[in-house]
Every structure is written in structure tokens, then in C-alpha cells.
Amino acid sequence: MAWTKYQLFLAGLMLTTGSINTLSAKWADLFSAKGCHDDPEHDFSHPFVQAVGMFLGEFSCLVVFYILLFHDKSRPEPRMNPGQSFNPLLFFPPAMCDMMATSIMYVALNMTSASSFQMLRGSVIIFTGLLSVAFLGRRLLPSQWFGICVTILGLVVVGLADFISGHRDDTHKLSDVITGDLLIIMAQIIVSVQMVLEEKFVYKHDVHPLRAVGTEGLFGFVVLSLLLIPMYFIHVGSFSNTPRQVLEDALDAFCQIGHKPLILLALLGNTVSIAFFNFAGISVTKEISATTRMVLDSLRTLVIWVVSLALGWEQFHGLQVLGFLVLLLGTALYNGLHRPLLARIPWCMARMHTEEEEGSSGERDRLLDNGRAQTAEDT
């Protein structure tokens, strides 16, 4: 079945904005500028300010939701399902998980490459699978367990590539690269907790995906913006790259933006791209399939890696290619992307039918087909 022009547009929008999201965040980290009070020029290292911008992009999805709802109600026959009423505080726990995971990942992005950052985010399927078994009572298919094992192997290969590159690359210290990689994996544990919380408490309320993303963005934006105040006074010594060596110096960030406005362009690219990426991802799931969304999400890792190489942000390492392919295979196995191919083989088709009966595949498909679950990883 051929895709329509609108479906091609959505796929292109998701791939483009998803790539821009990570690349713009990394671009901001590469800037250096003077700060406040004639501070010497220093790197733009403000992960929490970047996270606030990301949540602002998510919050804009709530604005889009109400615009679409208002436009739909003006029609003679409204077609949009706004979902049932719910208590917005249901989104507070997953929003806090999102806030912690996003902040940690932006800290890690300062320490490692954009491509490794994106590849290592694939580890979320390991922890999501294990937590879904432990807390949701889901039974994973044998192919999903194999996919988790392959993903672990891919993480080892990517980590080894970063370890080797840390000895050859002057861009990042070896200790920073290793720390950054570990922080990314730790953040994926928090993301998986977010997914399980949403699955257990939120999905049953039939909340519109844009409304769900926007509500979490609102909580994250408000809470993290308020936390910037105490962060301004918390000294962390050499762990901070800011002149005052505090956890986050938002005033220094604004001063650096004033001295080098291009930083603002990078931050706006991150904010705007996350809004369009969430919208495109949800639309791809609805208009095409969740499987297509998974494939596009894997392809943006390749785009980020190629663009980073072209811009000279990192060096080529063959092990990273191998790691990417292994992670891609693990993701494909976990999400069942191999099933359409095996379905053409009679004995495989019978085996797959048995697995479906034993593994409660209906629960798995419900998780995959819900746009909000994938959105938690996307942010």
C-alpha cells in the first residue's frame, strides 16, 4: 500500500524534527561566550535551562490540542475525540520522572557525542520490558527477551567504541565520556519508570496524546523553572563548568545568550523541534502504524550520526557502526518488526501464533500503538 503525500510529510517531519532536537541541543553545548560581570569566555553548560526549554516545547502541545479542539467544535459535525475528563495530577508523577530523566540526559550530552547519546537511549527497552513484567504482569515473547539480550550486547559495543575514542579524541575526556554514557543509561531507567506509571494509571483514562504530552510538559516546565532558583545557590565545586560553580546558573545562561545570540537559535531549535516531533510522532502512529514510528525513530539515530560526522563534531569509529546495527536489531526484535518477514514462512507463522497465545501479545500491541508511550522516550 502506497503512502499518501500527507503520510510522507508526517514521516519526513518526524525524522527531520527528531534529528534537529538532539543536534540543536548538542550545538548549544558547543558554544562558548562571556557570562555576567565580565566573566571570561566559557562553555555554554546549562543542561537544566535546556530542559526547561524542552518542557516549554512539550507544553505547547497542550496549546495545539485546544486550538484543534476549538476548530473541530466549529464544524457542523465534530470528529475529534477529546477523551474523557481526568484529574491532571495523574500526570504529575510521570512528569517528574520526565523532568529528572531529561535533565540527566542533557548533563550527559555535555560529556559525550550526539550519536552515542542517541544510540544509548535505545537501552530504554531493556528496563521497560523488565519493569512491565515486574509491575504490570506482562509476559514477554521469546523474541522480546532475545531483543533485550541483543540490545545489551549493542550497548557494550557502543560503550567500547566510546572507550576507545576517548583515548584518541581531545573533544571529551575519557572519564567524561564514560560518565556521560552511564548517565544516559541511568536516565533510561527513569524513563522506563515513567512509561510504566503512564501505562498503569494514565492510559485507562483515554486521554488525547497531545493533551497528555502537554500536561506533562506544563508540570515539568513549572517545577523545573522554580527549581532553577535554589539551583542558583547550590555550590557543586568542580562538577560545574559555570564561573560560580553552582548546580545551574540561569543568569549566566541569559548573559551568554546576550553575548552570542546564536545560542538562542540553538535553544529555540530544541524547543520548537520537540513540539513538532511529538505531534509528528503521534500522527505517524495514528495515520500509518506504530511500527513505522519505531523505524523512523531508529533512522534518526543514523541521521544524527551522519550529520555529526559531516560537521566534524566527532570522528568515525567502525565499532560505533557495529553498535548501531546491533542496537537496531535488538530494537527490531523487541518491537516485533521481524514478524511480517517471518509470517511468509509457514512453520514460522505457526510458531508465532503459538507465541502470541502464550505471551499475551495484545498487551504488547496496546503499548506499542499508544503514542504516549513512545513520546516518553522521545523526550
TrEMBL record:
Record field: transmembrane: 48-69, 89-108, 120-138, 145-165, 177-197, 218-242, 262-282, 294-313, 319-337
InterPro entries registered for this protein in UniProt: EamA_dom (IPR000620), EmrE-like (IPR037185), UCP036436 (IPR012404)
Record Pfam families: EamA (PF00892)
GO cellular component, one term: membrane
Membrane topology: Multi-pass membrane protein
Protein origin, superkingdom: Eukaryota
EamA domain mapped to chain residues: 48-158
Primary localization: membrane
Segments for region (Disordered): 356-379
GO molecular function, a single term: transmembrane transporter activity
Keyword line: Membrane, Mitochondrion, Transmembrane, Transmembrane helix, Transport
Subunit and interaction comment: Interacts with SLC25A5.
Function statement: May play a role as a nucleotide-sugar transporter.
UniProt record similarity statement: Belongs to the SLC35F solute transporter family.
Protein name from the UniProt record: Solute carrier family 35 member F6
Organism: Oryzias latipes
